[in-house]
Amino acid sequence: MKKIVILGGGGFIGGHLGKRLKADGHYVRICDIKKHEYFEHSEICDEFIVGDLTDPVVVKLVIEDGIDEVYQLAADMGGALYIFTGEHDADVMHNSATINLNVARECVVKNVGKVFYSSSACMYPEHNQLDPNNPNCEESSAYPANPDSEYGWEKLFSERLFLAYNRNYNLNVRIARFHNIFGPQGTWNGGKEKSPAAMCRKVAEENGGGEIEVWGNGQQTRSFLYIDECIEAVLRLMNSEFKEPVNIGSEEMVSINELAQMAIDISQKELSIKNLEGEEFYKKYGFKCPLGVKGRNSHNKLYRENIGWEVSQPLRTGMEQTYTWISEQVLKSKETAFTI
Which entry of 71, 82, 117, 151 is annotated as an active-site residue? Predict the structure, then answer.
């Protein structure tokens, strides 16, 4: 049995990771600034510490001697509305970088056996993602660096931070660049939700005969990886000897309009898609439409060749499971509002 710490375990990926590791028989300690909204603590960990990881005192408390593995998932992040408007840039960079500086140092001091750092596909250069049909997100394309957001710049900095600790202090690190992880038990409203959750929510909220709004022209492309696949890929990476940053994502690329239509088809509702962009968008919301890059798709050759695993299910399967869960949350919220 390993003694494992998950930082950011009150979040979507961290909660699912904790559930898997606890089910596998390990002792799991979680630290997050908030409790998990959808999992009971007993489902995902043996010990839950509510604490702010920007505080080095908290990190020293959580990461103690004898820890076998630390999974560093904690970050100040969210969906397009949070990341791409520019309003949260300082907090995103300061909070996430401070956490990673604290964690890297403490893992060395406490001689942690192995550390996982969750980076993001947002660190890839904007100039390689201008063609929605041919984005280049191969790991070797990371430099010369030119992320399209401060969130991406911070992720790139923190990758280099952990790699520097590996070179100078022999910190045993694994780094994954996540590509749009989605699924149940995650944020589905409030502005921090990712595209799959947003589309499922918009469809679930409509009764039929109406329309759902898609920001931009809907031709921007992405790939999305279901949470169970992500957790499997993370654990296989941690059990390997591969130490370079590597993509964890799906190579099934879809446009945002196709993603929205998939949610509509799953719901079996009669709905249309309304694309909102430019001046029309600004008049409605009062800020520029946050879109991110025009195209992004995971490139998995490096992972396949070095870890020997591939995604096992199509996007549609994960979307069906996610839509079912989000539609239940929408119904619960309506019932609560009606009761009040």
Answer: 151
* Annotation says 143 is catalytic: no
In CATH, what number does 3-181+224-248 get? 3.40.50.720
One-character DSSP codes across 202-226: HHHH--SSSEEEEES-S--EEE-EE
Give the mean pLDDT of 233-261. Answer: 98
Q: Provide the pLDDT for residue 335.
A: 75
CATH superfamily of 186-223+253-296+313-332: UDP-galactose 4-epimerase, domain 1 (3.90.25.10)
> What are the boundaries of each domain within the chain?
3-181+224-248, 186-223+253-296+313-332
Question: What pLDDT band is residue 82 in, cutting at 50, 70 and 90?
Answer: low
Is the pLDDT assigned to residue 156 strictly greater than 90?
A: yes
